[in-house]
Amino acid sequence: MPLLALKCILLCALMHEAVCACMLNNHTLWIERRDCAQCVAINTTICNGYCYTQDTNLRGHFGRRFVIQRSCVPLSLVYRIAHVPGCPQDVNPQLYYPAAHRCSCSRCDARTHHCVRTSRTSDDRCTVTLGGVKIYSLP
User: The Glycoprotein hormone subunit beta domain covers which part of the protein (predicted)?
Assistant: First the structure.
């Protein structure tokens, strides 16, 4: 019986890390630039996963002590350069995009990160307007 209890405790400890995993994931960004003729798919890394969060039913200052809200955020970001083809001479074809290097479950700092997803639209396509006709490039 004690061996079974030890196995259950060990399994729960291992599952905690699997359920609350915050890790790097590959992600495809579709970038385009106004006045450029093409759309480019860029592969980068983002932080993705679940972090432990706890809410309370208590109100006021006392209740705020029991609230734990963490997000899967990057600890370090590097900005890389992408070149958009088909740009006129007077348009800079370079765009910068982020690539996460390390992730962690921590409080989201609104000064440095977008803590709330604001858009419900899908970002998995580009729209390029050529001669007044809108072209959708699907993955």
Answer: 21-122
Quote the CA–CA distance of 84 and 91 in Å, as a whole number.
Answer: 10
What proportions of the chain, in percent to the nearest 5, are helix, strand and coil? 15, 40, 40
Q: Is the pTM of this model over 0.85?
A: no
**Cα–Cα distance, 105 to 49 (Å, whole number):** 9
Q: Tens digit of pLDDT for each residue in 12-54?
A: 555 554 555 899 999 998 888 888 888 888 999 999 898 887 7
Q: Which residue segments constitute the domains of the chain, with CATH numbers given?
A: 21-137 (2.10.90.10)
d(CA 35, CA 128): 9
Element (H, E) at 14: helix 2-19
